[in-house]
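Homework help board

Subject: predicted structure for assignment chain

Our instructor gave us this sequence and asked us to write out the predicted structure in token form, then describe one feature. I got the tokens but I'm not sure how to describe them. Can anyone check?
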Amino acid sequence: MKTIYLDHNATTSAYPEVVEAVSRCMAEGLGNPASQHRAGQRARQALGDAREEVAAILGVDLAPPRRDRLVFTSGGTEANNLAVLGIARAAGGTPGRVVISAGEHQSVIEPAEHLLEQGWRMDTLGLRPDGVVRVEQLRPLLGPGTRLVSVLLGNHETGVLQPVEELAAMCNGAGVPLHTDAVQVAGKLAIDFGRLGAAAMSVAAHKFGGPLGIGALIVRRDVALTPLMFGGHQQAGLRPGTEPVALAVGMATALRLCQERQAESARRMTALRERFEKGLMTALPDVVIHGARAPRLPQTSNIAFPGIDGEVLRMALDLAGVACSVGAACASGSTELSPTLRAMELPKELVASSLRFSLGVTTTEAEVDEAVGRIARVCGELRESR
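My token output:
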């Protein structure tokens, strides 16, 4: 039985063109981009070209006088840690306040909690029942001691898109930097960093068909950033260590392919998501689609199956050849219920019965229809066995 992979938000396979680009780059035997000999110069040129291409596609202006910065990282988790800790601490002095939304990824929540343990104050913006952040709660928190606000662009569990442009305008008016985790949005929808107005933005290549092991933190020119690591001058000292040139080339290649195919890919995945959800609602009329009334990412569907434990259902579906998740892959194994769904003030029974399904560019109509059939059959079997 062929497994139907519906967990592309956790990671998605690299485009063949990306595999080829990375392999070709590695085969060329490029040197260390920090070296001054010719091999190092070629590596530095390839790295610079990749940085400029990623920046151009994401609306990042690296040229003077603006001079935004694009710092390559090992992925979204490192980029989020660098943003939260690096921006919050850059002002120096006594501990201040950080504000995050209740729907953030653990790689934003846990650095904020680390600051809390060090004497900082952490405030959380709630979510409406449709999954959209409660914008009205932000303005009273934008005081002189607020060092950072972090609100993701698209939720990794529900797919709900957040009004980051509106929130950034509020923050900029108060002189407070806003960071946004755009890991699930990059490559799926068009992003213009300059238009967003954010101070910083995180992306990760393996979410949009690039290689594992590389991401980026984009930082606006006027935003101070304190490094988390030391021991080298690379990337202006903001992230020392030898840059992975081949991975950067792969990331740029993937993002270019996504940009070229974005409109058609978004239309196709939205249609597949709607087909999937309508099929399940027909087969299982009591299912609940979380965030269905809010703008959502085209590839993400979070669904409650009332009366069935989500983890039990996930394991049963795995045996039935449907790969999905209870929530974020980084939280896999946790016994806690989804903080995003709990913040939406949903009944505990619905939260506990929810699973995330996420589509990719390789997902087909036939796979969606077969997945609906397998899910309906497994749910029926679990209900009969109670």
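Reply (TA_rk): Your tokens look well-formed. For the description, you could write something like this. The chain has eleven helices and twelve strands. That's the kind of observation they're looking for.
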